[in-house]
Amino acid sequence: MDYMNLSKDEKEEIIERYELAIGRIRGIVREEEIRIPLRDYFHKTAQFLILVDSVAGMIKDGSYHKLTFDELKSLNRSLYEDIMGDNYLSSYANPAYACKSLGRKYGKLLSFLYTELRATIVFAYEQQVALHTIYLELFLQIYGLVKWEDSFTPKDIKRVIGEFMHDYCDLLMKHRTLETANPAYSFARDIIMESNLKDLSYLYSYGDFISDNELKTAQFINSLPKEQIEAMADTFTTGFKRGFEVNRLDLSKKSYVNIRYQIGFEPVVRQAIHNFKEMGLETIIYRAAYIAINKRQHLKIGYHGSSPNKQYDYDHRFDIGIFFDKAFKNRKLETLEAALKEIKHITGNYAGPALIEVFGEELFSPKDKPETISLNKMQQKLITEYYGEERLITKEYYNTPETSFTIISYPISEIGPDFEAIFEATVKVNTLDYDLYQKIQQNIIGVLDKGEYVKIIGKGKNRSDLMVKLQPLKDPAKQTNFENCVADVNIPVGEVFTSPSLNGTRGILHVPLIYLNDLAYHDLELVFEDGRIADYSCKNYDDTDRNKSFIKENLLYNHESLPLGEFAIGTNTTAYMMGKKFDIAPKLPILIAEKTGPHFAIGDTCYSMREDLKVYNPDGKEIIARDNEISLNRKSDPKKAYFNCHTDITLPYDEIKEISAVLYDGTIIPIIKDSRFVLEGSQLLNEAFDII
Asked: E strand or H helix at 616, and its extent?
């Protein structure tokens, strides 16, 4: 039911339904029949929906784009102020407040409803009248239940929500599938290509929350010379092209590329769109998911603005638990596959994603609230099964073994007063000497390839003590375990990595403090036996069980265990010292952080679902460590081969006592000793340590 593709009669019917719904909602703010405290909830929610309707009307009649910059800024704030800062403490979007005000049984459900209805902001800006209408009707249905049913219960509200999600699963899933795969959905691309980017009013065309990050970042990038913007875009798009060249894939067979970015980088994205067009690629740009049925926890995959409140995002990361069951899981998968079948002529020509990531936002340690919606054990099992089956379906339709990607990172203004200096330093890090790092890293690989395993020992507060078993090479003259990673898909340069052998890999991985996917982990410890996590702990909370639950939900993604999918040694000491100089090491994105020391990825290998694609280093040797004992299950039972996650955990150089290759005869060859590269041919990397 895509509004733009409906017939005239269908559009008229939707508009009539919409007008009836919003007219009824306008009347709710004057009605007093519902008992307190539910009355306040429905009045405030109705007022919010009326505000969103007024925005939708202004966009439709064109008056929105005649507003002044200050008027646009004020209107944007009014849409999000309810969940910003301390306002969130007394917002019905806050499950703790909703439960306190409405009672625990009603609070969880109505906080979920209020949060889902905030998606109408997106519907208003994109003029998605059909989706907007059904959400207004959901609100009215629950309001009617509460108003007219004398004996209604929380179970009745939950039933209505569940029926809505089941009834409209096909519509909501199909819309999401199409907007993430079909270039005809050009809402964001039109803003980028048709707006006057010098006039920052364009930022308010998306409907996302626009903070000082977006405003100051856009203003700064607009101040850069055209040549520098072009160079930034060239680094980004050339990395994507190199990914195809390195993997010996034919880019000329592809037609579409997906660009993901944070709002504020439009001048760079516009140039990237031009660059990709010259490669024969049309761009697909889609918004990060905004409703429970499509979100994956608190993660934002797609373009987005800064979060108005990270605790809000965290509180609602498992909202799907309200209605997720086996029948719904199967319905989602069926709808996904049906939608992909309709556009297989598009998805088959997909080249992959190109990501501009950002860093510098205030570090976030979430509060774990008992009032939030959580997944029970059965739902945890079902959700992990869903993501596994979803990935197998998308692999088929997107032909993922023949795609590539690229990722690059830049700071945003929230990083502090040194923003411009950090930005300049990041550009330097992103453009380090490709050939020099390739040569140094090849020397490190030459020693590692002789090893039976690698020994990693932490120092100071770091208690890491690991043995990482390497896969045996049958023909060392033609084969290698480690990929020589320079600035192609993963920008910047600076790591050698492998998929280790699980059997024989054992020990403790410990980090005193690390931020992963925007969440802080204090004293994170993972214990490995035969390459699998056998135990885990952290000290985020006083309660041991809460700590384990936090790790399982947010790091293990509800799996009982995960394997060590990657071991790598980062070599980008320049990036490391940038973090030290500006005191921003905890804020560095994993893309840069993983290059600033050894790192260990839990989950799938780096070659997940691409294991049969032969990969070679610049010296011509084939990288044979593309599988491990678990991923080999793909040949008999693909559902048991993958975990659909890959999270890098980095140990900074100053927490490393030793990294050594241990040869089959027991010879130990140190690569790093006491935080310095000691292997012959790699000492040049130490020069950055002395530059502050």
From this structure: none
Give which of 431, 490, 438 is closest to 231, Cα–Cα: 431
Average pLDDT over residues 256-261: 97
Q: What is the pTM of this model?
A: 0.90
180/190 Cα distance (integer angstroms)? 15
pLDDT digits 0-9 by tens, 96-115 = 999 999 998 899 999 999 99
Instruction: Determine the Cα–Cα distance for residues 437 and 571; give it in Å rounded to an integer.
Output: 8
Q: Where are the domains of the chain?
A: 3-152, 187-196+208-407, 432-690
Structural element, H or E, at residue 406 = strand 406-411
pLDDT (tens digit per residue) in 185-210: 999 999 999 999 999 999 999 999 99
In angstroms, the Cα distances linking 312 to 102, 135, 302, 644 are 18, 20, 19, 25
Task: Write the pLDDT tens digit of every residue in 216-238.
Answer: 999 999 999 999 999 999 999 99
Vertex 127: Cα angle to 25 and 12 (nearest 5) = 70
Backbone angles phi, psi at 352, to 5 degrees: 130, 180
Sign of CA dihedral 106, 109, 113, 116: positive
Instruction: Evaluate whether 254 touches 400 at the Cβ level (below 8 Å).
Output: no
Contact indicator for 379, 309 with CB cutoff of 8 Å = no
- How buried is 333 (Cβ within 10 angstroms: 0-12 exposed, 13-18 middle, 19+ buried)? middle
Question: Residue 642 and residue 191: Cα distance in Å, rounded?
Answer: 38
Please enumerate in sequence order all residues whose Cβ is within 8 A of that of 593, keeping only pairs 6 or more positions apart, or say none.
579, 585, 599, 648, 650
SS3 296: strand
**CA torsion angle 53 56 60 62 (round to 10):** 110
Q: Which residues pair with 282 in a beta bridge?
A: 256
Q: Cβ distance 364 to 518 under 8 Å?
A: yes
Q: Using alpha carbons, select from 410, 407, 611 the residue that is nearest to residue 493.
A: 407
The confidence score (pLDDT) of residue 434 equals: 81
- What's the rounded mean pLDDT across residues 617-644? 93
> Count of H helices and E strands in the chain?
21, 19
Q: How far is it, in rounded angstroms, from Cα 109 to Cα 459?
A: 48
Predicted local distance difference test score (pLDDT) of residue 181: 95
- 205: Cα within 13 Å, side-chain hemisphere: 22
Q: What is the dihedral of CA 409, 412, 414, 418, to 10 degrees?
A: 90
C-beta separation of 487 from 406 below 8 A: no
Burial 368-382 (b: 16+ CB within 10 A, else e): beebbbbbeeebbbb
